[in-house]
Amino acid sequence: MVKAAEATLARGIEREVVVVGGGPAGSAVASLLGRRGRDVLLLDAARFPRDKVCGDSVSPSAWPLLDALGATERVQALSPYPLRGMRLVSPDGTSFRGLYRGQDRPGFALRRLVLDDALLQSAREAGAEVEEGARVVSLLRSQGAVEGVVVEAAGGRRAIRARVVVGADGRSSVVGRSLGVLREHPRFVRFSVRGYWEGVFGLSETGEMHVGTRGYCGIAPLSATRANVAFVIGQRDMLGAAGDLEGFYRAMLAGRFPRVAERLEGARLLEAPRAIGPLALECRRVALPGAVLVGDAAGFYDPFTGEGVTLALRTAGLAASAVDDALGREPGGTLPRLRAYERERSSATRDKFRFNRLLQTAVTWPASADAIAHRLARRPDLADRLVGIAGDFVPARAAFDRHFLWDLLRA
How many domains is the chain built from? Predict the structure, then answer.
């Protein structure tokens, strides 16, 4: 295998950029670099459209990012269901709703099956070459630097050299794991199970989060009657899923989230549920000689507030700018610019990840979740602000402002 790769290398196959993975982050990087005239090859092991276990909710802040990709009209043509806010229900049944105020466009819910395909087609239109059914199996490396990939496709294995490799291949990233920088989070070991339902009672243009005793369940309305219903639970609770995931999914909804189950009594499960996990990943470095990581491959923390796609698009924009700048420099100047992306990404995401951890820790305990819900039910202005932080249009650092925390605690 290695000799074949070396032989192919000797024939001089080389691209400016190879993007590994065609999800939102990978497609966004490929689109942005393609629009800048860069030579981009995007590889994905799947053939699109392909399914992806996700909450399917996208925050309002995604629209300007989609505009930059030239993907807005394509996404709008899929009739995404508008989301104008979020409602959280605590274990004792107390609920509050926060609205996406001050936004030109609402958030939306759309199956990743069609959203990811639309973004991939936008990458093609932007000038990137896309090869589906092409699995990257290893990296080409020399003197500690990434110099390309080895890909397996219908025609066999071949090596492709690249000045920069972008790892956008998700939680099981071959790029990240080959570089030894990606690992499962030692503490937040959670799994998610998702199902699609038709005939769900009581849906509105509001996403929902129902906090249970040891987990939470999200409802993303895809129409006035159809919804994605997904719950997140701990690793030990998932042991009961062995052999009968659908039975486990139904039983968990009935036992752990009875208010959700009541609304599904007259509904129909459209397809077999799917599970994914562990959810949380840590990444030590997102920029190394010859490579950067984006999207879930750069670390993933289960997004309680449903903004994973927006985060992927935003950080992809940072990565694309860094890669474009690096390609315009002499080889010795490439790595400093790629590492600048690492700092920029940390600055853009650090407070949001802290906010997610704080919020998830708070709702882990029923008494805490109930207390927060009681406070926010009495203060819709605070609820709107909290949802704005979750939706990425209020800076996440606002969650740590002492005045906000004081108002929240004494509301």
Answer: 2
